[in-house]
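The passage that follows is intended for readers who have already worked through the single-chain material. We present the inputs for a multi-component assembly, then the predicted structure in tokenized form, and finally a short commentary. You are encouraged to pause after the input and sketch how you expect the pieces to fit together before reading on.
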Amino acid sequence: MTEQWLESLITATPQEGFELALTLSRRGVKYTQPDTEVLKALRHGYANSADGLTAASQVVAINFQTVAAANNYWRGI
Amino acid sequence: MTEQWLESLITATPQEGFELALTLSRRGVKYTQPDTEVLKALRHGYANSADGLTAASQVVAINFQTVAAANNYWRGI
Amino acid sequence: MTEQWLESLITATPQEGFELALTLSRRGVKYTQPDTEVLKALRHGYANSADGLTAASQVVAINFQTVAAANNYWRGI
Amino acid sequence: MTEQWLESLITATPQEGFELALTLSRRGVKYTQPDTEVLKALRHGYANSADGLTAASQVVAINFQTVAAANNYWRGI
Amino acid sequence: MTEQWLESLITATPQEGFELALTLSRRGVKYTQPDTEVLKALRHGYANSADGLTAASQVVAINFQTVAAANNYWRGI
Amino acid sequence: MTEQWLESLITATPQEGFELALTLSRRGVKYTQPDTEVLKALRHGYANSADGLTAASQVVAINFQTVAAANNYWRGI
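Having made your guess, compare it with the prediction:
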């Protein structure tokens, strides 16, 4: 995969940081399953499963730890 | 999603920080499943499942690590 | 929820810190399922399930990381 | 529970620290299920389940992060 | 295993760091199951399972925390 | 268990650190199930399960965080 998708962990605001954490979480999936059609088909399943949604939120939480630390928790804002 | 929902990780007290961690956890779900009706329907299921509740509490714990660090653990209080 | 239940992450001893981590873990559950009767009914199930107990212990471990860091690991004791 | 079981996170060696992480993990279980007979009965089950053992090892790993940080990773040894 | 596969945690960019986190995650699997044929056979299964993909993304997120910290979050870029 | 198996978290290289993380993960299992014959029998099962391998890799990732921090991420190499 030579596509450039992540240039920096620094974001202007915490909310942008949270959204970057979402991107990181989805990329973690996409590197394992690059086929967009398969991903779309699977998405319907876990987006309608409480366990699947909680698990997805957990991955976002872990990536948000990284992004928040990188931004020194946006303390200067 | 252009709605502004997260302005800062800084809170006045640890309890407000814990409640912000809850908000982050729910937002992690909502970005994946934005349909409020679907979320309500799923909520009944996991709110009555011990495994589902433990998993939800774990995501809150992870997000609380981030919020607590951002607030330097409210040591000055 | 306007009840005040968390005033500080600082505790006198590591053991009190561990017990605070337990409180945080249970509160993470209670915010999602505030009905005490439902919680009592579920408790019997997971307190008799090895997987449920391990999962509960994991949430405590994550919250204990936060409390221990807040207390600078009680190094001065 | 008024029993005193955790006096300090500081240990003389990394291995003692790892064993303290085991103690923390088991205490996380015991606070939820204090009945020793129930715990013994459950133990047979998860000690013979690969998934149960991996989950137990994960809790130990999380607690070991805390103990290792408390001891500044025993760098002076 | 005497093969040399990890020389440094330092990478030029965050994206290379994320890809290193992927490598670490796969190596964590490969040390347990070194048989490449078995791994290929299993890959089809979890690459088509929403739960399997989320779990894989979580391991990457944890390893990315390590790599990002090692690189001081590429703050100088 | 009086056997000495962990003398230090310091390793010469990142790869040795990763392999130490593997050792920690396996020891976390072995303290719970010390019977080598049982462990061998279980190993076949999870080494052929995608979920089991991902879970094992996650424990390694958590322990690698500890070892990498102990070694200050081998930044001097």
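Commentary: The mean pLDDT of chain C is 94. Chains C and F do not touch (no CB pair under 8 Å). How closely did your sketch match?
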